[in-house]
Amino acid sequence: MSAFQTRSLVLSISILVFLLGIWEMSIPAKEAVGELTEYEILMGGAAPKAGVPPPSEIFVKAFNELSNPFYDAGPNDKGIGIQIGYSLYRVLTGYGLAALIAIPLGFLIGMSPLMYKALDPFIQVLRPISPLAWMPLALFIIQDSEGSAIFVIFICSIWPMLINTAFGVAGVRKDWVNVAKTHELSVWKTAYLVILPAAAPTILTGMRISIGIAWLVIVAAEMLVGGTGIGYYVWNEWNNLDLTSVIFSILMIGLVGMVLDAIFGLLQTRVTYQE
Questions:
Q1: pLDDT per position as a tens digit, 31-42
Q2: For 54-68+78-270, which CATH class?
Q3: Residue 86 pLDDT
Q4: What does pTM read for this prediction?
Q5: How large is the C-alpha radius of gyration of the chain?
Q6: pLDDT in tens, 41-99
């Protein structure tokens, strides 16, 4: 680790500690509740009021959850590891299906100006539609919450990959393609040996954007379909007014998203193309 990276890490930790300290001190101490009358107890006076928890409570919650993340005590009581596993399964399934369609179609659009002109209006109309707007239609047609959530991931993941693939393929230098033609390479060999290596960084950028959008959308989708997943976990804990669990789950969503982005960032460094 270089000196610059060390200084940036120390600065990040210092900012985090400072913000957590302000957060901890800004939460007022809980007042002791005196003896309540029978009427106050019947009216819910004995129940503690919900409030924003201090970081210390969240750390305790995180320790308890992460010490046994894969427990399964019933349909509505599963560990955070199981919930994240369900979400990752849906994300990766929809994302994989989108990649299988977007990358070949992007090659076709990028290599054929005619196909670009023909398909561009459809892309421009469908791309701005919010993924969650597709959920009612998906539930009606598919009639399965699991399949509907995967479809929503598919429809939100396909556009960045498709557009970046088409842009990367179309941006390959024409003289390279002409050299391939002079060597009488087939279209498939030209695409694989010449265009793919040159367009790979741009394609991976689209894939990196897509995985971030997919992870963002699955949380909202699972809040709607329910059952399992990190989105359902957040919504269920909110219904229980357990803000400590809600904040803990939000942090876990961010950490998993950071790991997914870091994986694709590492892949990008491995496929950097130099002329």
A1: 555 565 665 555
A2: mainly alpha
A3: 92
A4: 0.83
A5: 25
A6: 555 554 555 577 888 888 888 898 889 888 888 777 788 999 999 999 999 999 999 99
